[in-house]
Amino acid sequence: MASDEEEVPAWGGAIQSAIDQAGDEEDGEGVNVVSGSGLAADGASASGELPYVILLKQAVAGLKAGVLSEDQFVEGVSKLDVITDNALRVYAIPTVKKDLPGKLTDHQNEIVSALEVELHRLKEGLTVLLNYPNTKDKSDLDSGLQTCIDAMNASRDIQTAALTEKEAIDERKKEEKTRRAEAAAAADEDDDDESEE
Predict the structure, then answer these.
(1) Tens of pLDDT, residues 5-18
(2) Which of 2, 73, 89, 137 is spaced 20 to 30 Å from 79 by Cα?
């Protein structure tokens, strides 16, 4: 699992962007936890799997093989559980809950809501994994792992689609700005020609 010195990854830029737009300063620590790219597509390994998918698979395999003790397994999985809890805390911030939806487009609200759904699904899978030492049911390891994988992959897909859309919007804005600048330059040129007459 990740070392304590390793930088704590973020859940996603989509949530951070929403928080930035809301101008919330109430819970800086919670906001910082979800800043950056986090579990985004660029965090995928050469196999195309997200780092935490790989780590959770290794943790489950290690526990099943007896390479990891239950305590080591719980310690490792708990790190992702804490990150998930911190990301979910952002959704509980009053500004996010009350004010943010009115500041975003319907589509942006759909993205933020979809990410929240996946965070809850990830939390559900992690809870199943963390309860394994109590249940001793090996099928819980498989079902908990699969729930986590599905949630993280869905989250990546949501963020990738949001990023692609943002890039397209930025490109359209850039093209519009260029078009306006050219139109303004052409209008100035026409004005100069008229004044010379």
Answers:
(1) 333 334 444 444 44
(2) 137
With b meaning 16 or more CB within 10 Å and e meaning fewer, what string describes 17-48? Answer: bbbeebebeebeebbebbbebbbbeebbeeee
User: Is residue 7, in this structure, part of any structural domain at all?
Assistant: no
User: For residues 50-65, b (16+ Cβ closer than 10 Å) or e, as one string?
Assistant: bebbebbeebbebbee
Question: Quick check: is 5 in a domain?
Answer: no
Please tell me the total count of domains within the chain.
1
3 is a domain residue: no
Is position 26 within any domain? Answer: yes
Distance CA 11, CA 112 (A): 12
3-state secondary structure of 5: coil
pLDDT of 195 reads: 60
The pTM of this model reads 0.65
**pLDDT tens digits, 58-112:** 999 999 999 989 999 999 899 899 989 888 888 888 877 777 777 777 777 788 8
Q: Which domain holds residue 168?
A: 13-196
Residues in the chain, total: 197
Three-state secondary structure call for residue 24: coil
Q: Report d(CA 57, CA 71) in Å as an integer.
A: 16
Nearest to 78 by CA among 31, 25, 8: 8
